Amino acid sequence: MIVKPRIRGFICTTAHPTGCARNVQDQVNYVRGRPQVKGSSNALVVGCSAGYGLASRISAAFGCGANTIGVSFEKEPSERKTGSAGWYNNFAFDRLASSANLFSHTINDDAFADHTKIAVIEAIRKNFGSIDLLIYSLAAPIRTHPKTGEVFRSTIKPIGQTMNSRTLKLDVLTGNCEVAEIDIEEATDEEIRSTTAVMGGEDWEYWIEVLSEAGVLAKNFKTVAYTYLGNELTWPIYRGGTIGKAKEHLDETCHKLKQRFGQSGVDASIAVLKAVVTQASTAIPVVPLYFSILFREMKAKGTHEDCIDHIHRLFHEQLYQEPRREDDSGRIRMDNYELDEAVQASVAKSWERINSDNVHELADVNGFQADFLRLFGFGHPEVDYDAEVNPVPLQG
Ligand code: NAD
């Protein structure tokens, strides 16, 4: 079939198999061209198929030479329908790892479910006995609680007040866009509770608990979960909103993990990462406008990073090096370039002035658009998008 992007707002329902494979190859090539990291030997990445999780798996495998197990929840392709981009990314990763003689095993199942955790433990026991790294990089819309069966959905809303702000309305195919006003109503207590149940730290703690009980954590075991803080412009919807509450719970979980498992050698931390275009981040209102203004400023300063540059930097300069760049709460700060004072001052100035007429001048809309299409394997310069492609890639 010929695969073209099919888009509604910031959702794309198709993915290009060859384009996704090329994106993964590009990330692997990037890491291969950087200094090797003396780090993980056996890593587990939860949320491995896209965005920061995929970049983490590539950094662990191709940057450290680690065996990797990955968990993600992606849609398989059929002869008539493409799979999700993450499915193709996993397929490409496994193939590249295998040709580099790196062990990889990908589990396509619900990370919140007990049976998935058991499958991971079995895979660890069978293949290398223990893991020394767990990257927790889930971004999920829904969670069925493994103990109670209650179904929780995450929502992105402000807390305590209706929010009036601006966002980017972008037609990702044509590039036509406008800066539009939006009102977002405040979250109910139930929505706050649900979002915390999905995106907070409980599941991360469950992972460490079962892996520790199963005796598959190496003596030098580290675990890192990812968070975002951002700046004043996004605080009402992010840090001060439902997702921010969930991330506060993640912070609390990190302290809890240190207390519960620190004596057995578990080193738990939170890394604050920069803004990047992913399926998860584009679902957040306001974010596309802030991101495209930010990217313009960071690119002008030469400090812009994509997932892979950013995560390779995390592995290279923070995870396996002392001293780490930590804040008062002990979080590893990778958002130092995003929050650079000069960058933020320019972003704030553009935010004040931006409107539908000057949006292309003040914001990197084209970069945002290209990043978005790339998530689904589109827009790669070396892929012929008019050629027939099999949506079910051949094994082997
Ligand atoms: P993403 O949408 O690119 O990837 C999410 C991953 O979670 C995918 O691998 C997906 O398959 C997996 N997943 C979702 N539900 C699952 C389930 N039930 N079981 C198994 N896997 C499941 O997301 P991302 O933007 O890379 O976010 C990853 C983490 O990084 C999140 O914690 C996010 O808050 C954090 N972060 C993101 C940004 C950003 O700008 N994108 C910035 C800072 C921190």
Structure description:
With 396 residues, the protein is an alpha/beta fold. It has helices spanning 17-32, 51-64, 85-99, 114-127, 189-199, 202-213, 242-261, 279-282, 287-301, 307-319, 341-353, 359-362, 365-375, and strands at residues 7-8, 11-12, 42-46, 67-72, 104-108, 131-136, 142-144, 151-153, 163-170, 177-184, 217-227, 267-272, 332-333. The model has no long low-confidence stretch (mean pLDDT 96). It has 13 helices and 13 strands. A 7-stranded parallel sheet has the order 5-4-3-6-11-12-13, with helices on both faces. Nicotinamide-adenine-dinucleotide (NAD) binds at residues 47-53, 71-74, 86, 110-112, 137-140, 226-228, 273, 275-276, 278-281.
Summarize the SSE layout with pairings.
Blueprint lengths: L6 E2 L2 E2 L4 H16 L9 E5 L4 H14 L2 E6 L12 H15 L4 E5 L5 H14 L3 E6 L5 E3 L6 E3 L9 E8 L6 E8 L4 H11 L2 H12 L3 E11 L14 H20 L5 E6 L6 H4 L4 H15 L5 H13 L12 E2 L7 H13 L5 H4 L2 H11 L21
Parallel strand pairs: 3-4, 3-6, 4-5, 6-11, 11-12, 12-13
Antiparallel strand pairs: 1-2, 7-8, 9-10
The chain binds nicotinamide-adenine-dinucleotide (NAD).
| DSSP E strands, number | 13
Mass-distribution shape: globular
| Strand order in the largest sheet | 5-4-3-6-11-12-13
What is the residue-mean pLDDT, rounded to a whole number? 96
Tell me the number of helical segments per DSSP (H or I, 4 or more residues long). Answer: 13
